[in-house]
Amino acid sequence: MSPTRTELRITIAKLIEVAYSENKELTAKIVRQKGSFKMIVDQDGNARLSSQAGIVNFSAADTLDSIGVNIKSVSVNFSNDKERKIKYTAIIDIKVAKIAVSGSFDIEALITSCSGVLCRAAKSLKERHNAYEVELKNIMGN
Predict the structure, then answer these.
(1) DSSP for 77-115?
(2) Residue 117 pairs with which residues in a beta bridge?
(3) pTM higher than 0.85 for the full model?
(4) C-alpha dihedral sign at 19, 24, 29, 32
């Protein structure tokens, strides 16, 4: 069963959160800088968020497992505009097909939302809360 586009968009937000939990300062610097940055995840869940500001390596295995699909790779290109909206285009290879998804989200809402998102990110990777999912959907504009 293929993941829905909404599930993929939420997964992209979760991947940013995992990078943030690995290295808050550098991840914030990467996503807040004007211009572009990239995230690549391989089939083993090894992930890399990179830009001119630096590189954050982290494990995305739990996040990818949470969508219940065998992912071969994920490649996401992001661009940050003047309005602090992050636009992205992602290619997700699920071995039987490649799925493209694009959209945008408010980076400030994602990073500073201690009403739930980042303050509970580590716990939520292991325990999925409906409120967490709803909040991510709102941030992602769905």
Answers:
(1) EEEE-TTSEEEEEEEEE-SS-EEEEEEEEEHHHHHH-TT
(2) none
(3) no
(4) positive
